[in-house]
Amino acid sequence: MTVRLALDQNFPTPLIKAAKPWLGAIELRHTHEIDPRLSELDDWELLLALLHHRDGYVGMITADARMIEQAKELAVLQQTGLSLVVAERSGHDPVKATGLVLTHISHIVGQIGGKKSKIWSLSSHAPLPKGPRDYLGQLASKEGKSIDQAFNEARVDEGTLRRDPLTGRSYS
User: Fold this and answer.
1) Class of domain 3-122
2) What is the pLDDT of residues 90-122, one digit of tens each?
């Protein structure tokens, strides 16, 4: 059975189309592809239009976090049983928002069902980088060694560092 979700205009069509072969029975369609008139509606009316659409939409995906701050939209969601996915805190970055949705879409679709409305608020944060020494410390700790001991056991000698493994030539 195909699970259909509408997408707002903030998700790049080429990325969504490129992901299609890996989505299986999940269909993501932009609201303007479903019906161009949808873009003229208030969000709560858009949800109602999706509920009544002949293709059977189970919800909507948006990057507009304001939808979960509007009483009317929340009430309509609760009344209709439709679900909402919000790519929140993606910094108005359509690639990041699309990545968030594609990362979680299989899990989300697995939880959609019945007449109970659900809302997923997806967010991401850019992790701080770590150095190899940080990870080496974790490995050393698991092995009951000091970082220096683990490093000294794993390090390669200077001659090996200078030699290109593909050509065998040494560089200074």
Assistant:
1) alpha beta
2) 667 899 999 999 999 999 999 997 789 999 999
